[in-house]
Amino acid sequence: MKAHRLFSVGVLVAAVALAMGGCGGGDEAVVGQGTGGTGGSGVTDGSAGSQDGAAGKTDGGAGKDGAAGSAEGGAGKGGAAGKGGSGGTGGSPPDAGCTSNGQCGAPTPYCDTNTGVCVECGSDTNCTAVAGKPHCNATSHKCVACLSDGQCPGSLPYCETTSSSCVQCLTQANCAASPSTPVCDAATHTCVACATDSQCSAPTPYCDTATGGCVECLSDTTCAAVPGKVHCSASSHKCVACVADSQCSGATPYCEQTSGACVQCVTVANCSAVPGKPLCDATTFTCVGCASDAQCSAPTPYCNTTTGACVECFADANCSAVVGKPHCNSTTSKCVACLNDAQCPGTVPYCETVSSTCVQCLTAANCAGKPLTPVCDSTTHVCIACTLDSQCAPPTPACDFSIGACVECMTNASCPISAPSCDPTTHKCVACTNDTQCGGATPVCNLVTNTCVQCTSNVNCAGTPTPACDLASHTCVPCLSDLQCSPPTPYCDAAAKLCVQCMSDLNCQGTPLPACNTNTHTCVQCKLDSQCGGATPACDVASNTCVQCLSDSNCAGVPGKPACNTTTRTCVPCMTNAQCGGALPYCETASNSCVQCLTTANCGSANLVCNQVTHKCEVFCTSDANCGPPTPYCDVPSGKCVQCVGNANCAGFPATPVCNTTTFQCVQCVNNSTCTGGTPYCNANTNHCVACLSDANCGNPNLVCAGGSCVCAGGLALCGGVCVNLQTDMNHCGSCPNICNPLYETCSAGVCQCLPGLANCGGTCVDKNTDPSFCGGCGTQCNSRQYCAAGVCACRPGFTNCNGTCVDANSSATNCGTCGHQCSGGTPRCQQGACVNNCSGIYQACGNACVDNNTDPRNCGGCGNVCARDEVCVQGTCVLYASATPCTSCPCTNICQDKFGSPVSCCPGFGINTQPVCVDSGNNGCP
Q: What does each C-alpha distance from 383 to 294, 315, 362, 366, 398 come to in angstroms?
């Protein structure tokens, strides 16, 4: 029985040896012989058989040696190998299962005590010596290559659990990382290339047979359903947004080939038009600003880190090498020639800011110093000669075409009324060239300056209070020397040009006022103490009078009056208590005299009181017998002599008939009962009757009570029971009443003042622009041939200035049609500016002049009937006319009727005057 069991173990060992290939015969068992093992099948070389069979149990008999296995296994790749000999038969197996490893042997050298079976392994430790099979399968108790993926190497990362071997793949997903071999072969468990789409799945459902890889797409058609990615990349076989720039637009116009996305840029060139972002970010493919100069290149080699833009410059230093453009324009970041005039040289001193270039001129003013090239060409910015008047501007608005220079005038038309003549030599407008062109306050022509002035010599000032002509100002002045002055002002103050009483003390000698006040130029009593004496030894320079004193020192020698009252300038006994003493120690400042007392306290005794009138200390009274004038009554309670103790004591004082029993003074009132008439209320503070104590007492809502009187509030004045503003009231201007004429005046600052456009001449508001009696100034009168044109006497409409004389060129036989054209011979008369034989039609002969007696102001209604300066000829009658100012358009009824009554005519202004005029022509109309 034991021998049988041992044999069974030997058979098991032989079987294991057979499985491992060509095992050797078993060792001799304790009992019986073992059979040789069968040779292994065709590995290249069979493993060597075990040298000894497994030992039998200690109590078994020895077994026979097994026959040796074949030396070699079958051939490698070739025919099947021959069998080896069977292993030797071991002894009989033991009667029970194993309980320890010592009861087991190869190839199952470990005892599974749970089953009592000898096994190949019980844990991974039992497999460490088994090549390629380091792990123990706990179910089969066999050493295997793996039990889980974590036990497989990187090249064969998955464990195939059926064979417990490490393989390349188990599922398709295991081949995803191998684009060219995406399919897992189920037999070999290796990744192989795909052959059909069916071998591929999402997200790479298509087989690229060219590469054997599963891909996302093969053509645009296969991407049609992918939102935003409708194109197939030929290189990546992925659905993308684009494969060419033409498939992009808007803010992302370029196709980035690697990602297949539409982007803002792929190169720097794509950002050239993006302000402040000249570079293309290689990661985000967006245009970005620069951060350093290294990111910029010519022609914009500098980085403006504030804006991120590559620029030509951002400081003048960046332009140092740019010829002719040394300055950086911070707005355009361009190198330019200039930014301001200071950066331009003398020949081209102005900076033209549009082109930032230095030029000769920008405006005509820049050419002002170039008389022959006064115009600035707006295109070339070069000073050129003028060719048109429009190229010139005030003060030189006319072009002298002969030299191309802008001048003040070429004809009289360019000259203003104030300087109406154009000097043909200097081309300047002048006021005059002879006295006939002047008048009014400036009747003389200064031929040096060609201006109308008051005088050019003393002759022009003769017979006036200002007989001397000051050639510096060309005005008549009172004097230039003593010869032009006479008493009582016989001396000339050359600085003020005024005749004065004195210029120095010498001029005042021998008079009661021997000193000259050089500020007022009048003879005065004194300027120095030395000029005073006697009872008034001191000179008060403020009043230039001799006075008794200015300080106490002046009173030192005046008996009993050692102090100077600086208000009255007289010596007095005292000004302060310090100047008094003895029996009279106090200074009573009202009279400046030393007295016994000022208050009862000064008397120093309860039995004495200070009489406030005499300022003497008096005995405390007990009856009227102790008192006397001016305080004849005794107020027994206080012991003081007073003016009154009852109303009866005031009977002798009509103005103050009531006794104030508080102050013991006779007063006007202590209550309203003694107040009557216009002052019915008693002011208890002053004991005076007043008109009011409150606003309510005034009985007029416009009046308020102020200082006991009813007055208008807010600075207004009471006029006729109404409060008015004397500063502006037209009926009470400055006083009650004072009426301003609303047609010509307004009340301003309490004065009736002429309305704008009018001037006050002798208390009358006149229009100095049109009034022939006040033309340009008060007292300036035009002659009968003239009218007042904008403040200047000019020839009446229809008259012509011929050498300073206004003539009617329509009728003058010596100036017929034009100045100097004289009619003679068979056509001695002038009619309508033409020489004729006899007058005809409505024209009558007045001498050789053919005139219309209905309208001619020199022959109005008949020959030689001359209208005055303020008259016009209407229907053959000289009638008055006057400006309608401030009325600006007819009929101006109120003003015209105010001037001439009714009926009256309102007519258009004469000549250049646009202001309408009132004409005293009744219903006969205008001239």
A: 46, 33, 9, 8, 17
Distances (CA, A) of 740 to 732, 754, 767, 842: 8, 9, 17, 48
Distance CA 219, CA 217 (A): 6
Pairing of strands 834-836, 829-831: antiparallel
Note whether 11 and 84 are same-domain residues.
yes
Given a contact cutoff of 8 angstroms between Cβ atoms, the answer to whether 632 and 650 are in contact is no
- pLDDT single digits (tens) 101-126: 989 998 999 999 888 999 999 898 99
Q: Give pairs for 109-118: CB < 8 Å, separation 24+.
A: 110/141, 112/141
User: Smallest Cα–Cα separation from 744: which of 896, 912, 904?
Assistant: 896
Query: Are residues 865 and 859 in contact, defined by beta-carbon separation less than 8 angstroms?
Result: yes
Angle at 273 between CA 271 and CA 274, to 5 degrees: 65
Q: What does the DSSP assignment read for 453-472?
A: ES-SSGGGGTTSS--EEETT
Tell me whether residue 612 is in a domain: yes
pLDDT tens figures, 150-173: 899 988 999 998 889 999 999 988
1 and 95 Cβ atoms separated by less than 8 Å? yes
Give Cβ neighbours of residue 535 (< 8 Å, ≥ 6 apart).
548
Q: Using CA atoms, how far apart are residues 284 and 206, in angstroms rounded to an integer?
A: 31
**594, containing H or E segment:** strand 593-595
Q: How many CB atoms lie within 10 A of CB 212?
A: 18
Q: What is the pLDDT of residues 775-832, one digit of tens each?
A: 888 888 898 888 888 788 888 888 889 988 999 999 999 999 999 999 998 999 999 9
Residue 569 lies in a domain: no
Q: Which amino acid is at 901?
A: G
d(CA 495, CA 373): 47
Only one residue has tokens 């001191």, namely: 538
Give the CA count within 13 Å in the CB-facing half-sphere of 309. 16
Q: Return the H-helix or E-strand segment holding 846.
A: strand 844-846
Number of structural domains (the chain) is 5
One domain for residues 46 and 90: yes
Our measurement of the distance from residue 628's CA atom to the centroid of its chain's CA atoms, rounded to an integer in Å, reads 85
Domain boundary among 631, 651, 667: 667
DSSP character at residue 558: S
* DSSP E strand stretches across 454-497: 468-470, 475-477, 491-493
Contact 177, 156 (CB under 8 A): no
Contacts of 321 (CB under 8 A, 6+ apart): none
pTM of the model: 0.31
Predicted local distance difference test score (pLDDT) of residue 65: 38
Closest of 851, 870, 876 to residue 927, by C-alpha: 876
178-226, pLDDT tens digit by residue?
888 999 988 899 999 998 988 888 888 999 888 888 889 999 999 988 8
Rounded to an integer, the average pLDDT of 385-414 is: 89
Task: Encode 522-557: b = buried (16+ Cβ within 10 Å), e = exposed.
Answer: bbbbbbeeebbeeebbbbbeeebbbbbbbeeebbee
Classify residue 21 as exposed, middle or buried by CB count within 10 Å of its CB (0-12, 13-18, 19+).
Answer: buried
Q: Are 61 and 32 in contact (CB under 8 A)?
A: yes
Residue 536 lies in a domain: no
Q: Which domain holds residue 7?
A: 1-119
What pairs with residue 499 in β-bridges?
Answer: 492
